[in-house]
Amino acid sequence: MEINVKESTIIRPAHETPEQCLQISDLDMLVPTVHAPGVYFYRRPSDSSNFFEAGLLKEALNNVLVRFYPMAGRLGRDENGVIHIQCNGEGALFVVAETSCVIDDFGEFESGLKLLNFVPNVDYSSNDISSYPLLLAQVRGLPDDQASKLLIPINGRSRLNPELPSGYIGNVLFTGTSIALSGDILSEPLNFTAERIHKALMRMDDEYLKSALAYLKQQPDLSVLKRGAHTFKCPNVNVSNLFHMPIYDANFGSGRPLFFRPIVLFDGLTHILPGPSNDGSLYLVTNLETRYIPLFKKSFYEIFAS
Question: Which family does the similarity line name (predicted)?
């Protein structure tokens, strides 16, 4: 697949925005310092003369960054090395590119590696995090005694009391966990596993979440708790439920997207998404080592065929 970059530019807010430093939360300190890439696909309408016209998109981004001005900032560190957001209006990276391939070349969009070609490159090996734009646009065979951990990201916005404002853009993700032995999962009825997961979710109430925040405040070095590839790999799995997110409402003037695919960077990361047809169907994206995929498919379809 050949991709030709036609233009790469920084889009700044249309108006002056507050200049300040925003301290990130302890929850932010637990997640990898990388972007969360995803790719939207749109099919050109037959009567569209300005399909994804770059000038219109730049103007829209220009205006949106006024309200969401932290996304036009950069990361920095204070004197103690703690990361914060420098709201300095430096802008978001906007890239215009062309490719010789068409949507039908991607089949059912299984390969996340192919889709990585559509994501702007960022050198995460650099220690200078201030160079990162915050916004860029463009199952397994285990022994029976093997403990397997299911990690479930929980949105704490509505679980905390009082609730956070609807426009709050900070990270409020807590992680619920359910642990069981592989042999128990395979031998028990499915409802046993479902009940185990349900209990893990229900205990994540206001008291529990505030206790978790207090625990993080007591830690001298949050980097030792940072999640990453080592957290999710076999025998563990992380499942994010994005079914209720309005993913297919991303209309930039040319209709609803044909398809959206998150690009999963770590082994064991799984996303549950709404289907593109808006009929209540689900779409599951998971990242597994090739040797585990046949067993995952077998187990997955056996569950839903029973």
Answer: Belongs to the plant acyltransferase family.
Q: Which of 114, 137, 160 is the last residue of a domain?
A: 137
Where residue 293 falls among pLDDT bands split at 50, 70, 90?
confident
Segments forming the whole domain that contains residue 244: 147-305
Boundary-marking domain end, from 115, 137, 159: 137
Structure tokens at 136: 């860029």
Name the residue with tokens 């995929």. Answer: 293
Question: In whole angstroms, how large is the CA radius of gyration of the chain?
Answer: 21
**E strands along 156-258, which residues?**
173-181, 237-241
Q: Are 82 and 23 in contact (CB under 8 A)?
A: yes
**Residues 246 and 279 reside in one and the same domain:** yes
**175/154 Cα distance (integer angstroms):** 6
pTM (2 d.p.) = 0.73
Distance CA 240, CA 269 (A): 8
Distance CA 222, CA 215 (A): 11
Asked if residues 172 and 164 have their Cβ atoms less than 8 Å apart, the reply is yes
CATH number of the domain that residue 164 is part of: 3.30.559.10
Can you give the pLDDT at residue 189? 86
- Sheet containing strand 92-99, edge to edge, reads 3-11, 92-99, 136-137
